[in-house]
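Q: Start with the shorter request: fold the first protein.
A: Done. Sequence, then structure:
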Amino acid sequence: MGNLFVHTEFQAKDVQQAMKWYGELFGWDTNYMPEMNYATFSDGRTGGGFYSNDNYHGTISYVRVDNYKDTLAKVKDTGGKVIVEPVAMEGLGTFAILADPEGNCFGIIQFESNEALPPQQKQYANFITHIEFRAKDIAKLLDWYAAVFSWEVNHIPEMHYGMIMTSKDENAVTGGVSELGESGPMAIAYIHVDDVDAIWKKAIENGAKSVSEPSDVPTVGRMAHFSDNNGNVIGLLKYAQPE
């Protein structure tokens, strides 16, 4: 049941503002919990949330694991780091924030129940589809994730990229590793959208900064990137239709 991306969180100085901004941009349903200063969003697939704290920053995607202690040991024994020690949340499970050897942060969570997560009832046009990490050595980091999570990986040198298949389920969120940029290691969440150009334009008009303008990537699809006012870099993606 484990080793799937199940939840993605975006850092926000103002949680309610971020919740409203993303909800309007992508048409997501959101819910603010004032007692935690935390907000959740539903995208019809994995969903996620908006958080604010001083311990870690940026986008954090959580991987569901069957045994968090075993995963922690693997990460620490192979060059990764623990950013936030395991925290038990009653009624949910135990989570921790980790970093891979390149410095990309991600989360793990062991749910209290081993049952499959119930599917979200409402479907949305825009949903998280891919989580990308950055590395100086793409092949080496791919091998690291394969060893820690037993994921299938595929290095594509001619594209300076590596693919991570977390499951054979076509609806599962995939992963990837790209070349390390000037901004350093980070996790980038890609949102599948029907119209990359329209969503990108709307994000920029609403205060986001352009990272890359919409363009076609051969064999992949149409893509663009922006950064929000909290420093999260978001990818927009519409997959190419099979010929």
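Q: Next, the second protein, separately.
A: Sequence, then structure:
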Amino acid sequence: MAQSKSLLKLCKQGVNEMTILSILATIFGTIGGLANLPQWIKIFRRKSAKDISIITYSFVFIAAIIWLLYGIEINNFPLILANVFGVINLGLVIIGWLIYGREKIKNNSKRRKV
């Protein structure tokens, strides 16, 4: 019970110490991290990763991982939260491309050989 009270106190203290900028960074960083949610939902619903630039998503995915690790290193909650969502959503887009985008490439290469 004492631990939960101290955890609650720490959370309240953290919120009190957050500036308006860090609150906005947390909110909009999280929204930014969720920005790829519609893309991966579309990929999995349509079972197609048509027109997905895997190179672009790969670079952004690597950048999000680096930012996440940096946020963990400096113990920055807004940075961690935003990039956790970013890594998950970007990862799902890449997984969708690996499942559905590569099939398109295989089919196109078969057509060209004929």
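Q: Describe the second briefly.
A: The chain has one domain: 2-113. The helical segments are 2-17, 20-33, 37-46, 54-74, 77-113.
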